Amino acid sequence: MPRQAARRLTVAALLLSGCASTAIQPAARGRWPALDPPADQSRALVWAVGDGADGRRPARRLAHRIARSRPDWFLYLGDVYEGRTLAQFRSRYGRVYGAFARITAPTPGNHEWPWRRSGYDRYWRRATGLRPPPYYALSLAGWQVLSLNSEAAHGPRSGQVRWLRRQLRRRRGTCALALMHRPRYSAGLIHGDQPDLAPLWDALKGNARLVLSGHEHDLQRLRRRDGMTQLVVGAGGHARVPLRRDYPGLAFGDDRHFAALRLVLRPGSASFAFVTARGRRLDSGMVRCRRG
User: Does residue 230 sit in helix, strand or coil?
Assistant: First the structure.
């Protein structure tokens, strides 16, 4: 059996059998992410979700839905409830998404970043053999995937913004997808827009097509701005928060369902859909990008 197919079957079997809480498996040592890329780079099935790692039933049901599709990659958009210690990560995050450890690219949320040395860093070091850097990049099915950090320094002259600009210069075209916990623009009733993230957003202009975030406990698709479509996927299972229906630029919003984002990446395009634990598709679309 090909390595990619075997890996996908293993993840699905572990989650569907209810063994996710003990399924943290060290990946090969090397650069972060310390993971083997899918053998087939012409297509990648990727799921993304945030604000759902609390160990409770709604989050576990959503994880089972993801597992049944046998994903190539999983993007966790931040916030573990609570994620201050390794024990909390194991009992909350591990119980829900632990089986995805070998195919996960995480970004930290505000609930774990202040205590990263005791929780986030220790958990991912045990899962991969490496301490995760605050931000990093990987290539997947013709796309540059940029895991940014909305909780670390991100001013115009910060190391993160300088790093991001270098990454974008190395790869021409617009086939880039960024993820960061807090959204730059949002119809969320509690948090809303996050102006402090403007330096990251501005660096992505003209270079990226998709920006994924959590933080708001809802689902949002914002109308394209600066050539980018922002998707908020914070309905991972930990409570729900109302939306501002009158928010300018909101193309789709849902504050009633727990759901995750299903992405199919191909060179030159990405299709996406918000999918509930029962498999209901709430909204979908496609973006195209220019390859360098």
Answer: strand
With tokens 């119809």, the residue in question is 187
Query: Residue 35: its pLDDT value, please?
Result: 53
Q: Is the Cβ–Cβ distance between 106 and 147 less than 8 Å? A: yes
Residue spans per domain, the chain? 3-288
Residues composing the chain: 292
Q: Which of 249, 255, 212 is nearest to 235 (CA)?
A: 255
User: Token pair 């991972």 is at which residue?
Assistant: 236
Place domain 3-288 in its CATH homologous superfamily.
Metallo-dependent phosphatases (3.60.21.10)
Whether residue 257 contacts residue 219, with contact meaning beta carbons closer than 8 Å, is answered with yes
Axis crossing angle, helix 3-16 with helix 57-68, rounded to the nearest 10: 150
Beta strand ranges found along the chain (DSSP E): 44-49, 73-76, 104-106, 136-140, 143-147, 176-179, 210-213, 219-222, 229-233, 250-254, 259-266, 269-276, 281-288
What are 214-243's pLDDT values in tens digits?
Answer: 999 999 999 999 999 999 999 999 999 999
pLDDT digits (tens, 9 = 90+) for 71-123: 999 999 999 999 999 999 999 999 999 999 989 999 999 999 999 999 999 99
Structure tokens, 46: 């990727």
Q: Is 191 left (phi over 0), alpha (psi -120 to 50) or beta?
A: alpha
Please give the distance of CA 3 from its chain centroid, rounded to a whole number.
24
